[in-house]
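Handout, section B. The chain below has 204 residues.
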Amino acid sequence: MHTANKKFVEQLVRQGRIKTKAIISAFFKIDRINFVPDEFRGEAYFDIPVPIFSGMTTSQPSTIAFMLEKLQPRKGEKVLEVGTGSGYPTALLSVLVGESGKVFSIEYFQELKEFAESNLRRYNFKNVMLLAGDGKVGFPQEAPFDKIVSSAETKEIPRAWEEQLKIGGSILTPIDSKIVLAKKVAKNKFDAEFFSAFSFVPLL
């Protein structure tokens, strides 16, 4: 374990950003420095967004931690991630769902998908599939999903995501600078919670 990453994660834990044992363990196992461009490696252990490619940035780790704490991915679950970005949240999800789970991640930009692939290759994950395309349509070939999470802001939850989610599952996505956690309690019925004061790139 990289000492700088260990100290960084310990700081996030002290600040109360990460609370769940499994999520803390995942952050210790996945080193953020492996998911930032070479020219920004000096910023890897600061709780800030870092530029990647195509005008995109990585989310700051405390925001990723907040989203994972609300989503609570568990061993054996099938998760759809919209917006692979650097692959850092993808790697954390991979650890959280374990070998018996699966993470399908869709990235709009081919260049970013390739960047994420090169980053994830360091970990030799067997439970991750990266896709290039329109995240709004989801991935019906592998539906239904236990969890769907997006790191890109939308105006409303796409209908395709609602349809591809299991009853009892959850969607976590930014909408109008809020993070929305929508739990599917029955067919076409969701209970939603809203969390304020976040900034995300738009869903393309």
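Note. DSSP finds six helices and nine strands in the chain. Compare this with the example in section A.
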